[in-house]
Design goal:
- This protein is mainly β.
- The chain contains 12 helices and 51 strands.
- The strands form 10 sheets. The protein has a 22-stranded antiparallel barrel.
- Strand 27 and strand 28 form a beta hairpin.
- It starts with a helix and ends with a strand.
Length: about 1000
């Protein structure tokens, strides 16, 4: 097997050369010069020359790029050449007859049939020839309508096959993206991010906020500290387009790390032509999307809550009745939800970019600043970015690109989410009656909270939870065309990149906070300073050979990739028992220091791929990748990822005579395998520390490693149909898939008699995902003064454990089954909720995955100057384990708490009391999380060039997350994931920070 790639490379190259010996040269004769001009068909720049457009002579390697005025000229065009192919990113490609003095207008087109998408590590293909369903999100779709919180938030409702959940509504976001169902049970189902060829870091760093004295701080999956995603560091305005390889059949060429799909991000590049300066300024405001509401107190309600004859209960009842009466007399009844989450935060986003260049050198330079306030005072998110992208033609046969970016961000997130140490603002709010006065006195002293162990106003105003990040992203690509003639080319490509992230975290609870005064004597007050560093590097070398052999276009690529991560490099200083007014841990009574040296995790991949294109009618692709990793017991073990696909474009055959009606009729099928990553340390048994005779020693761990561990493997088969009709005014894309994750890893419990408790990771079963994705586009109206385009996407996924070698066990994080848990059970979905019935037996309840999702994107253009856009996103089904409402029900503050209800025995009670203590979890905690959201809406007015300096002025208003329609009343937002990016068990509502509504004014200037 070690020599398999040597033979495969030889075989694929022979496939290219042998047909050529029997095929005549496709290009003969020549001597003509073909020239013309390409014009911009965008309404804002209509009639202007479009620079940087690629013009190629069909069937040859001849071509040119248009200059600053859109002009091009190609010499020595063979006499047999008949067509020119014109393409440009973001515009619909065209094929026109060869001629002189041509005038060609390119029209912008979202998801154009002829747009170029990635199919290999060093090659791309036209969408009309694509055999996979690859989602593309353009710059216009990302930031053309409104301003998203983060890049991943901008993808919500725009990718069929994706379930995107919000881990926190706090500034800076926090989202979980899952493509085509869960790809792991114990691991993450987050996709791999590749930014301009850099394998990017998207780790979430657990800071310990949710534990006493912050002792749970580390990098761990299933965080309850509602951490941010590192992808939030990217400036969405720098993005040119995003390609989403949703399944293994598309992502197989990335091999290991691609089990959960791949998201490819390409940033903007300079274009040939005069220098262009663009300024974008957004000013806005954020408010809470929806309040939970609050039911006030009456003497009758207090008597119900504090019912009983116990002397302590009687005394408390009298105390609360007296407090209510006093507040009613003084008029001091407070709306604490408004006080804590009613702030109107200022939103400001500024972006300046400079682009241009000549034939030999193009550049793109950008500076950006996002300064986002919050619905809670004192919180916010600030991000500063700088980017330089260069593309250079170093010679006739060598070109290169360089991408450099720097990001500096600060995230003030506060204290919210699950309550493990009684310092969560939403948790404290639930138990706070409106007649309690917790505001500070004239001296700024906050009173104690008599209902829980912390005053939420003091926590909001005085506690600190800040994360600061400095990040560098760099990549470089060099292409050397060793051979390039009329019908063949050989390109050697080298690409390298690095992603360095330094994150500083600070947590601080002053010593005089109520929760800290309840700590043991001498340990009041806590602070923690943590530094996390991570360095990702990658290197890729590839050879790409293309040949036109008669009617066959042959493309071969082979290469090597190395991806390395210095992971887990962190240190901290933690202190308990702080001196008054001193927040540094070095002077604390109890100091704890910790450091973990980085782990050097290295993956190596070898890949080969062959594509055969028969006249754009039949396109067949075969590929294979093999990976090695030092996370395995044998670092030389090769793990293979094959792929195969075929696309048959029926509309290119002669029997389809009406080409105007049937622009595209394509059948496609694709197969592929990908691998997951092996958790570090899974193959060996670690040791613990102890004291032996006063000296340091080691002890055996009760957890065994597994030296036979292998990565989880995902195998996917996808079939589909693509169609375009009536001049591409109607488009259809439909896909069905079946993805099987074999030998998924999970802890394996052992009998106590063995002397150890479990094996850390063990292949315990198989997981299947099946789904359907449909995209339907209409250009319903196309008149000179009015255009209307609508794009509908529909998708669903069903999961099932098809094989299991261990007994039924809880899957993913969670609490008592009374609140609902996910379980591993053969024949059931791992994301289905289970709970005990009246007898205590485990029974199945609803599914946390949605039944289906659908989105509607609508664009209306009036008089080529006004543009109205809105995006509606619907999720049907999908149930949350909702513990947030339980806290309000226990406290008696739920908005419908006093509504009449009846116990199972027929006795009268209230809705709040019944939900707080339901007979089964399905009655109180497993809640329908369906919704309809107005994700985005915008209205812009565009003025074309009205002076020599200002080429375009665009002004507009927009909103993000404006409207929520849902039956879900158990929390602030049904779109929630209380355990971060956990693949299974994340759909838990644990007192999360409320979602926000965002409004903007926009000003865009192009000079």
């Amino acid at each position: 097997m070690k020599h398999v790639f040597r033979y495969l490379v030889l075989f694929f190259f022979l496939m290219d050369w042998l047909p050529a010996t029997y095929a005549q040269n496709a290009v003969s004769g020549g001597g003509r010069t073909v020239s013309g001009r390409v014009l911009d068909g965008d309404a804002a720049n209509a009639g202007q020359g479009l620079p940087g457009v690629t013009v190629r002579v069909a069937g040859t390697s001849l071509g040119a790029a248009t200059g600053a005025d859109g002009a091009f000229s190609i010499a020595d065009v063979p006499a047999t050449a008949t067509d020119l192919q014109i393409s440009f990113v973001g515009y619909r490609a065209q094929t026109v007859p060869v001629g002189a003095g041509l005038s060609i207008t390119l029209v912008p087109e979202t998801r154009a049939l002829d747009e170029v998408v990635v199919t290999g590590l060093a090659t791309s293909i036209k969408r009309s020839n694509l055999a996979n369903s690859i989602a593309t999100v353009s710059a216009r779709e990302l930031v053309g309508a409104t301003r998203p919180v983060t890049l991943d938030a901008a993808l919500q409702g725009k990718i069929a096959g994706a379930v995107i959940s919000q881990t926190s509504g706090a500034p800076g976001g926090g989202l979980s993206i899952q493509l085509r169902g869960p790809s792991s049970i114990a691991g993450s189902s987050e996709p791999l991010y590749v930014i301009d060829g850099v394998y990017a870091n998207n780790e979430s760093y657990e800071n310990g906020r949710s534990s006493n004295a912050f002792t749970a701080a580390n990098e761990r999956l299933g965080s309850q500290s509602v951490t941010t995603n590192r992808i939030s560091d990217l400036n969405p305005d720098d993005i040119e387009n995003i390609e989403v390889l949703k399944g293994s059949s598309a992502a197989a060429i990335y091999g290991a790390r691609a089990n959960a799909g791949v998201i490819l991000i390409t940033t903007k590049k300079g274009r040939v032509g005069q220098t262009r300066l663009s300024l974008r300024q957004d000013i806005g405001q954020t408010t809470i999307l929806r309040k939970l509401g609050y039911e006030g107190f009456t003497p009758e309600k207090i008597n119900l809550i504090y019912a009983g004859t116990d002397p302590a209960v009687v005394a408390r009842r009298q105390q609360e009745l007296a407090a209510l009466a006093a507040a009613q007399v003084s008029g001091q009844l407070f709306d604490y939800e408004q006080e804590l989450f009613g702030n109107r935060g200022l939103l400001s986003n500024t972006n300046v970019n400079l682009s241009g260049g000549a034939e030999r050198l193009r550049y793109f330079v950008s500076l950006g600043r996002a300064d986002e306030g919050s619905i809670q005072k004192g919180l916010g998110f600030v991000r500063n970015t700088a980017r330089l992208n260069l593309n250079a033609d170093l010679s006739k046969s060598v070109d290169a690109s360089f991408n450099v970016s720097y990001i500096n961000s600060e995230n003030r997130r506060g204290y919210n989410g699950n309550n493990n140490n009684n310092v969560s603002v939403p948790w404290l709010l639930a138990f706070l009656p409106n007649y309690a006065n917790l505001f500070p006195d004239a001296n700024g002293v906050y009173p104690d909270n008599p209902y829980l162990s912390e005053n939420p106003l003091a926590l909001r105003d005085r506690a600190v939870n800040t994360e600061k990040t400095n990040r560098f992203l760099q990549s470089a690509t060099v292409n050397w065309y060793v051979l390039r003639n009329d019908n063949s080319s050989l390109r050697l490509s080298g690409q390298g990149g690095l992603d360095y992230t330094l994150t500083d975290q600070e947590l601080y609870l002053p010593e005089d906070l109520q929760s800290q005064r309840n700590q043991p004597a001498g340990l009041q007050g806590a602070s923690r300073y943590t530094k996390n560093q991570q360095l990702n590097t990658n290197l890729q070398l590839a050879a790409v050979y293309t040949r036109q052999a008669g009617a066959f276009g042959l493309t071969t690529q082979a290469g090597f990739a190395r991806i390395a991560s210095l992971f887990g490099d962190f240190s901290f200083t933690q202190g308990q028992g702080l001196q008054p007014g001193v927040r540094t841990p070095e002077r604390a009574a109890l100091r704890t220091l910790g450091q973990r040296l980085p782990l050097n995790l290295v993956d190596r991949g070898y890949f080969v791929q062959q594509e055969v294109n028969y006249r754009d009618r039949v396109v067949v692709t075969l590929g294979l990748r093999a990976d090695q990793t030092n996370r395995a017991a044998d670092p030389n073990l090769l793990l293979y990822s094959p792929k195969a696909s075929v696309a048959v474009n029926l509309s290119s055959f002669d029997f389809i005579t009406d080409k105007q009606t049937f622009n595209l009729l394509k059948l496609r099928a694709a197969y592929g395998q990908t691998g997951g990553t092996i958790p570090y340390g899974a193959y060996f048994s670690s040791t613990g520390t102890t004291q032996i005779g006063g000296l340091p020693g080691v002890v055996n761990s009760p957890v065994l490693g597994n030296n036979a561990i292998r990565p989880e493997r995902a195998t996917e088969l996808e079939v589909g149909f693509d169609g375009a009709f009536f001049g591409s005014r109607v488009t259809l894309e439909a896909s069905v898939y079946r993805k099987v994750v074999r030998d998924f890893l999970f802890p394996f419990s052992l009998a106590p008699s063995t002397g150890v408790s479990l094996i850390s990771y063990f292949p315990v079963g198989d997981l299947q995902n099946q789904g359907l994705e449909i995209g339907l586009g209409f250009k319903a109206v196309d008149q000179p003064n009015f255009q209307y385009t609508e794009q509908t996407q529909f998708w669903l996924n069903r999961s099932e454990v098809t094989r299991l070698v261990v007994p039924t066990a809880p899957a993913g994080p969670g609490f008592d089954p009374y609140y609902g848990r996910n379980y591993l059970l053969q024949g059931q979905s791992p994301t289905r909720w289970f709970g005990p019935d009246a007898t205590g037996a485990l029974v199945a309840y609803q599914e946390s995955q949605p039944k289906f999702q659908v989105s509607f994107a609508n664009t209306l253009t009036f008089y080529k100057k006004f543009e109205l856009f809105f995006l509606i996103h619907v999720k049907q089904g999908g149930y949350n384990s909702a513990l947030t409402r339980q806290a309000y029900d226990f406290a008696g503050t739920t908005r419908d708490w006093s509504n009449p209800a009846f116990n199972p025995d027929g006795s009268a009670t209230t809705v709040g009391q019944l939900r707080a203590n339901p007979a089964t979890p399905d009655q109180g905690f497993i809640v329908d999380a369906s919704y309809m959201k107005l994700r985005e809406v915008s209205l812009y007015y565009t003025l074309p060039a009205f002076s020599k300096a200002v080429q375009r002025l665009r002004v507009g208003v927009s909103g993000n997350n404006l409207l929520l329609v849902t039956p879900y009343r158990a929390g602030y937002d049904p779109e929630v994931s209380g355990f971060g990016t956990q693949a299974v068990g994340g759909s838990q509502d644990l007192w999360n920070f409320p979602s926000a509504r965002r409004y903007f004014l926009h000003l865009n200037l192009d000079f």
